[in-house]
Design a protein that fits this description.
six-stranded mixed β-sheet; elongated; Arc Repressor Mutant, subunit A; 13 strands; single chain; alpha+beta; three-stranded antiparallel β-sheet
Length: 489
Amino acid sequence: MVTTKSIAADLADLDERFAGWRAALAALAPMGVADSVHLQAAAGWRRDQVDRLLAALAKRVAAGEAPLLSQVTERIVRLGHSGRARKIFLLESAGAAVLRASGVADAEACQLSDPTVIGHALAVIDVRQAALQAQLSVATDRVLRGSFGCTLRPDNLVTLADGTRLLVESEQVATSHLLPRLVDSLRRKLKFWQAGAPQDLPPVVRILLTTAPGDFARSLSLWQSALLAVAEEHGAPLPCRFAVQALDDFLQAPDWGEPLDSERWHMLRDQSDPRPGAGQRKGAGAVALTAPEDFTGRQVSLVLRAIRHTLEVQAATSEGDRALPAPDAALFDIAMLIYMASHGPGRTVLAQAGIPWASIAMLRHFLRLRPRLLAALTAEIRRADRAGAHPQAVLHRMLLIAEVFLRHFGFGVDGPLHVWAATAGYGDPDTRPYYIGVQIRRGALLRDPITGLSPAPRELEVTLEALRWLLNALFIYAGDVGLPRPAFW
């Protein structure tokens, strides 16, 4: 282990040449990571002073000294940050030893390596630095204790001049795949306030979203979906509220006011959308198809409700009168959500052997949310019944039915997304006599439009499995999902 004694003699020149350099290094302590602007703000320096310190530290390393910090070489996506890219640094063991000797008792070397986790940590430090520049006290990534042993670990806990404390969370881009995590995060906070939060903590959680320009509304909608799901379980009134703002907007003019400025903060609703019929809880008989007991756990139920609200919003805003909609990548998210309801990780072998009722129920519900698609599929299936049962006719009709589904999302069947109908080989035990095949010819089709990152091979494989299952389910489970069963099936 690196000790203070072994490096103290080598730091005298830094103390002499760079007054305040230890304060710059301390910017790394709370999360183990910081960027050049954070270092500059912590020391009260100009950018060229930080550059000179970094050059001096690099010379020490070249001379064989232990590094105090290291620069991140991997690309870190920082949505909402514009202008010159900032250098990002991780705290090393020697640097942590120096900070402990300087009074930062809990300083530890950074163990972060995942780019997404590093990006979140930097967003947390963005907020911390904004609070410090406003002369406010702030505790970062520390345990907050409530009544009855209940605890919470907020990203930042900011104390105002009058002693009021504000709980501020920094969140990355929200996607439908992260809905379970969003639901869990909200439930933990509601549990904390329900058990008894400290009296000096207003019942408001401020959520700062790190999003690209134009993507805030989508992330806000997903957080709203998650809260509606949790509120349905918890019951009204909720013990705390949730306010959301884009991190970039907040940093341009930090707002620590209490009560909240309604012009800047978006309050998440704990009741359904006021549009007639939108978001209302359906009666027990509204969905005839129910999943077996194995798939009715609390988390699955909550996530399905959150997905339902998201799909309702999409149905209300995306269903235009266009006969030929532009390709909508939501197809892949929806396919994954439906598929993973019954095919997610952690299922027992016995559950895997059963009928995928949860996925079937999700598909049925989705088709109800898209009545135009349901009507188009129904009409095409009935038209297919008049074509006879010759194998070539069956394959042709199957492809036409799959094409109706894909066309609804603006996709064809013979481009980067390749879809075909085929017959299984003689004696092939792995497929039905007729099936729909799916291939993604170009991985860029699934590239994240915000981060620009392509999916990992396993993620691509699972997405293919999900879309393949969904298209085949239109035939295998036609009657269960509200479609007429094709005569040839």
